[in-house]
């Protein structure tokens, strides 16, 4: 970590591998979170049909989800996306798998952009830059098939320049967008952010009124976002600078995890920040987690079976075995055993193991994942059957592995064309971030230069829109939201009863503030984002789609057979005639003052006849049941 000049855009190959594995894991987590809600958010039976999705998209957007409108198609693409994410984690044909993962994720985002937040933008950008990086060169199936792996751990190329700039842009441009006095003058930004009960959770309620801490911490966060990226790009003492910047940013994201419910965003950010860790740290981690020495072994495979050879090499790499891989036929005694037993042979400390038992012994004596040995050994006879079935079909597996796991002399790296493309895309991204700067910041830049940047970004819109390179890192900018609130969706049934449409309950909605917005009002952070956007002035159409879908789903349950479980004496599910959507706005007061609550009527909807909206039946029924202090507040 000396003071020699170093390239600030160099990244460690192992950091890229860790990023690849993290991105694949986060893709799966995101899909699993979304899966339970696809009927509502991604089907024609929900609130956002394919037609609505296409109509809202710009000319250069695309989505595989637009090819069919049935739920079967959505489930198929989700399953394919998870399969591709698993291949990405494993590092199988990494370049192509990265491309397929990117196309599937772009398609998912374009299907319903109302659900998206900053973490989604960052995840798709990490996948995009992965197209220009050798992130399959370590900790991958691809790497095990290379005869002469590169020993150089640092990589510099167009992709690494673009990736480092992208990671730092998230913070650097965010600082410029945080230009409110709450950030730059009085230091109240964190106070307001932690009082937004729609996102505040875990530790936030316990310390958000500690002004002696929130004020200096606000200034620290702003200056860290502004100066941290500059420090990380220092060519002097770069390892120290990068390590310090990465540590500060990672601790910031950990703070988000324990105080703000913003979904996967902090995990995605931490995954990206792994790239900033210098080679010296990865060398240290490699020493700490190096496999412990164990007895040498020989793995004998059938010389005529390429698949068998590749499998042995893969097992040796995955479980960190101290093993030689040799063809059985070159040792007559072992070759005879292989022919008689129709099995590979594992030889270790004078003992020989066959079939499934050989695999179990490899795992037990390996340097990684030894805990898997016990469940594998419990399989026993079934394991031998699996081995025999694979053996009888090794020709098919051989053809599959010839495509998925080809032998290579060296691992291919991005060539000049891909590196140049990455640099052009990086310039586009920087132009977009500069174009989004507030006017005060732009005033300090050359007008002619800004005009050129703007024109370049406009010219690049086909690329920006197609690849979803558009980004705006405006979380809590220009200052945190100074109000939050909760929803009341008051329904009126055909028997004159009031019901809670939001919570799907046959009782009137409770007007009191919920203890936790998630999950009492929103099942997860996707629903929170959806509801938050839906109440904005520009999403009137979405409010109508939500109301229509809610009516259709509620009335599809009508009848005693469809009543939700509410005990043995569950009442029949009544017909929903109409419902109103209210938002109870709670303003966050300045430090030391009392807050205010105001009721807002967002939407009135009649499920059976829109011409009857003038009757205001829901409002009249609601006013009749509320106490005076609430009745006077309801519009």
From TrEMBL:
Transmembrane segments: 13-33, 71-94, 114-135, 155-177, 210-232, 264-285
Keyword 4Fe-4S included in the entry's annotation: no
Localisation per UniProt entry: Endomembrane system
Record keywords, A-Z: Membrane, Transmembrane, Transmembrane helix
Superkingdom: Bacteria
SMART domains xref list: HTTM (SM00752)
GO cellular component: endomembrane system
Chief place where the protein resides: membrane
Listed InterPro entries: HTTM-like, Sporulation_signal_mat
Membrane topology: Multi-pass membrane protein
Sequence ranges assigned to domain HTTM-like in this UniProt record: 8-281
PANTHER family, per the entry: HTTM DOMAIN-CONTAINING PROTEIN (PTHR39535:SF2), SPORULATION-DELAYING PROTEIN SDPB (PTHR39535)
Record-given protein name: HTTM-like domain-containing protein
Organism: Aequoribacter fuscus
């Amino acid at each position: 970590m000396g003071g020699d000049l170093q390239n600030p855009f160099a990244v460690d190959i192992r950091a890229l591998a860790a990023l690849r594995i993290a991105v694949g894991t986060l893709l799966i987590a995101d899909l699993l979170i979304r899966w339970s809600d696809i009927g509502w958010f991604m089907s024609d039976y929900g609130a956002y049909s394919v037609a609505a999705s296409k109509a809202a998209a710009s000319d250069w957007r695309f989505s595989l989800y637009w090819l069919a409108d049935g739920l079967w198609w959505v489930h198929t693409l989700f399953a394919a996306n998870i399969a591709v994410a698993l291949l990405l984690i494993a590092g199988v044909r990494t370049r192509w798998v990265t491309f397929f993962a990117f196309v599937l994720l772009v398609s998912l985002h374009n299907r319903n952009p109302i659900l998206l937040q900053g973490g989604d933008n960052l995840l798709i950008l990490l996948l995009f830059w992965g197209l220009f990086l050798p992130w399959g060169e370590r900790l991958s199936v691809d790497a095990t098939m290379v005869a002469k792996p590169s020993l150089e751990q640092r990589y510099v190329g167009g992709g690494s320049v673009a990736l480092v700039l992208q990671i730092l842009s998230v913070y650097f441009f965010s600082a410029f967008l945080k230009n409110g006095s709450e950030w730059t003058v009085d230091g109240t930004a964190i106070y307001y952010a932690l009082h937004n009960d729609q996102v505040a959770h875990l530790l936030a309620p316990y310390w958000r009124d500690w002004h002696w801490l929130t004020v200096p911490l606000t200034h620290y966060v702003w200056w860290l976002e502004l100066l941290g990226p500059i420090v990380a790009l220092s060519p002097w003492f770069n390892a120290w600078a990068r390590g310090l910047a990465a540590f500060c940013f990672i601790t910031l994201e950990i703070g988000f995890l324990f105080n703000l419910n913003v979904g996967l965003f902090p995990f995605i950010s931490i995954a990206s920040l792994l790239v900033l860790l210098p080679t010296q740290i990865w060398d240290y981690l490699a020493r700490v987690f190096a496999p412990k020495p164990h007895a040498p072994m020989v793995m004998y495979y059938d010389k005529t079976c390429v698949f068998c050879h590749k499998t042995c090499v893969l097992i040796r790499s995955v479980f960190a075995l101290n093993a030689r891989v040799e063809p059985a036929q070159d040792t007559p005694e072992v070759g005879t055993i292989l022919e008689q037993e129709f099995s590979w042979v594992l030889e270790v400390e004078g003992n020989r193991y066959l079939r499934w038992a050989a695999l179990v012994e490899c795992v037990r004596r390996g340097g990684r994942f030894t805990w898997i040995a016990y469940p594998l050994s419990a399989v026993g006879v079934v394991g031998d059957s699996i081995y025999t079935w694979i053996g009888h079909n090794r020709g098919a597996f051989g053809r599959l592995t010839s495509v998925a796991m080809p032998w290579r002399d060296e691992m291919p790296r991005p060539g000049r064309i891909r590196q140049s493309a990455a640099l052009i895309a990086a310039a586009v991204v920087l132009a977009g971030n500069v174009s989004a700067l507030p006017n005060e910041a732009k005033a300090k830049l050359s007008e002619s230069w800004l005009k050129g940047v703007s024109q370049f970004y406009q010219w690049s819109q086909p690329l920006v829109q197609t690849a979803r390179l558009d980004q705006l890192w405006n979380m809590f900018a220009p200052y945190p939201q100074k109000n939050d609130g909760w929803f009341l969706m008051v329904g009126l049934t055909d028997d004159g009863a009031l019901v809670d449409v939001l919570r799907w309950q046959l009782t009137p909605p409770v007007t009191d503030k919920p203890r936790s917005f998630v999950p009492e009002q929103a099942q997860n952070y996707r629903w929170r984002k959806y509801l938050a956007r839906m109440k904005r002035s520009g999403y009137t159409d979405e409010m109508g789609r939500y109301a229509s879908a809610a009516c259709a789903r509620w009335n599809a349950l009508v009848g005693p057979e469809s009543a939700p479980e509410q005990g043995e004496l569950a009442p029949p599910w009544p017909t929903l005639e109409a419902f109103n959507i209210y938002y109870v706005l709670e303003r966050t007061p300045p430090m030391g003052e009392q807050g205010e609550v105001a009721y807002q009527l967002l939407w009135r909807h009649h499920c059976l006849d829109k011409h009857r909206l003038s009757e205001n039946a829901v409002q009249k029924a609601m006013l009749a049941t509320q106490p005076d202090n609430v009745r006077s507040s309801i519009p």
